[in-house]
Design a protein that fits this description.
Belongs to the class-III pyridoxal-phosphate-dependent aminotransferase family. This is Diaminobutyrate--2-oxoglutarate transaminase. Its cofactor is pyridoxal 5'-phosphate. The protein has 2 domains: about 170 residues, Aspartate Aminotransferase, domain 1, CATH 3.90.1150.10; about 250 residues, Type I PLP-dependent aspartate aminotransferase-like (Major domain) (Aspartate Aminotransferase, domain 2, 3-Layer(aba) Sandwich). Helix 9 packs parallel to helix 10 and helix 12 packs parallel to helix 14. Strand 1 and strand 2 form a beta hairpin. It is globular, with a radius of gyration of 22 Å. The chain is α/β, with parallel strands linked by helices. The strands form 4 sheets. A 7-stranded mixed β-sheet has the order 4-12-11-10-7-5-6. The structure holds 4'-deoxy-4'-aminopyridoxal-5'-phosphate. 4'-deoxy-4'-aminopyridoxal-5'-phosphate (PMP) binds next to helix 7.
Length: about 450
């Protein structure tokens, strides 16, 4: 891969190239499964997976079939929020995979088809339902790019240039053990976090009233693939119940089997009041919904409108992909192949000390790259190494592997493969990844 020629080619494309093209200076010609072919005929393994949207990779036969069938039948393309057999089947299929306690009381709102809009809908819903305004969110979280969703995103660097974002937000510490803000690790840190959070609610001098909701990701994605433990999630659920506060779980990235559970919150057994879904829920076409408990339903007609919330093709592909995931036990495959990949990556960590931590659940995997030339903190964790992570990411590309990066300091390499990968696919990824490490060493 000749970087200069690629960068030059990139410039020849009229499309706005600001973000991902800097990391991946290629032009994509076609894609199938987890393979991408560029315009030069070079093939890459795609572990970026549409930022976690491609549960079955690109152009899976069931996705093609659903689109072809829909078009061959002259099914409506866009119905706003008018119902249709395609929409009905999608709702039934999605509700069929919800945990029973949520399914029995669930209502659904279709949103303009991206995660951000669904987060906005969730914020509005809890504000209307509770009559309160503040949202409690968490450090390192990512919820989207619009005024409200960005305001509740726990990443200062992408907000500082924007004055007057929604202001009623309180950020609480997320249990990121590798860099624990309390200077202790494990269960002790989680107990402290829960204690601190409850204290804010019960102490009349904390200066904060009851919020309209808590919002969290059960596994933070953009924040660096940081899973919250079942103990901590249960603790948050208990606190929110005790103080009558709705809990929104943002499953935009972690949902639909990605973490080895259909929904990431299921590992802990908690049931949220609002569940936000997008990315994989549309079977790789744009779709987003919130599923929420009936008691919150104080919307008036038109409370959350949006032209493209009736995208029938995405509902058809969403149904096909959810069915395929369940019929082919891909949630289990996600857990098994995720464990396999993490175990193999742990072996690489023994060889390459700059791999600070391997994290994740199922096929949502993070590899934190650290600087061992600096001193470790009290917990033995080294500082993040943003530069080296970027070098490895580029080296991966040269070795035929497209992988995502993220985390608070952009020092976490992230794998978001399709859920249907085989062990052989996993081995190929590991082989390319180690070659990438060897070539920068
Ligand atoms: N929430 C989470 C947890 C996400 O990971 C993302 C996207 N990365 C969003 C919300 C926003 O989704 P979208 O980019 O589709 O607006």
């Amino acid at each position: 891969l000749n970087d200069n020629s690629y960068l030059q080619k990139q410039k020849n494309y009229e499309s706005n190239a600001r973000s991902y093209p800097r990391k991946f200076p290629i032009a994509i010609q076609k894609a199938k499964g987890y393979f991408i072919m560029d315009t030069e005929g070079q093939v890459f393994m795609d572990c970026l997976g549409g930022a976690g949207s491609l549960a079955l990779g690109h152009n899976h036969p069931v996705i093609k079939k659903a689109i072809q069938k829909s078009i061959a039948n002259d099914s409506a393309l866009l119905t706003l929020d008018i119902t249709s057999p395609i929409k009905d089947e999608f709702v039934k299929t999605l509700f069929g995979v919800l945990p029973q306690e949520l399914r029995e009381n669930a209502k659904i709102q279709f949103c303009s088809p991206c995660g951000t809009d669904a987060v906005e809908a969730a914020i509005k819903l809890v504000k209307i339902a509770t009559g309160r305004s503040t949202i409690f969110s968490f450090s390192g979280s990512y919820h989207g790019m619009t005024n409200g969703a960005l305001a509740i995103t726990g990443n200062k660097s992408i907000k500082t240039q924007i004055p007057n974002l929604m202001s009623d937000v309180v950020f609480l510490p997320f249990p990121y053990h590798y860099r624990c803000p309390f200077g202790v690790g494990g269960l002790e840190a989680e107990k402290l976090s829960l204690h601190y959070i409850e204290n804010i609610l019960k102490d009349s001098h904390s200066g904060v009233g009851l919020p309209a909701a808590f919002i969290l990701e059960a596994v933070q994605g953009e924040g660096g693939v940081i899973p919250a433990s079942p103990f901590w999630l249960k603790g948050i659920r208990e606190i929110t119940k005790k103080y009558d506060i709705p809990l929104i779980v943002d499953e935009v990235q972690a949902g639909m089997g990605r973490t080895g559970h259909m929904f990431a919150f299921e590992e802990s057994g908690i049931i949220p009041d609002v569940c936000v879904l997008s990315k994989a829920v549309g079977g790789s076409l744009p779709l987003s919904v919130i599923v929420y408990q009936k008691y919150l339903d104080k919307w008036q007609p038109g409370s959350h409108a949006g032209t493209f919330r009736g995208n029938q093709l995405a509902m058809a592909t969403g149904t096909a992909v959810i069915k395929y995931i369940t019929e082919n036990s891909l949630v289990d495959n996600s857990r098994q192949k995720g464990n396999y990949l993490r175990n193999e990556l742990l072996k690489l960590q023994q060889k390459y000390p700059f791999i600070g931590e391997i994290r994740g659940r199922g096929l949502m995997i993070g590899v934190e790259i650290v600087d061992t030339n600096e001193s470790p903190n009290a917990l033995g964790s080294y500082p993040p190494n943003t530069k080296l992570a970027a070098q490895i990411q580029r080296s991966c590309l040269h070795n035929g592997l497209i992988i995502e990066s993220g985390g608070r300091e952009n020092s976490v390499l992230r794998l978001l493969t399709p859920l249907n990968i085989s062990e052989k696919n996993a081995d190929d990824i590991l082989y390319a990844f180690e070659n990438a490490l060897i070539s920068i060493n």
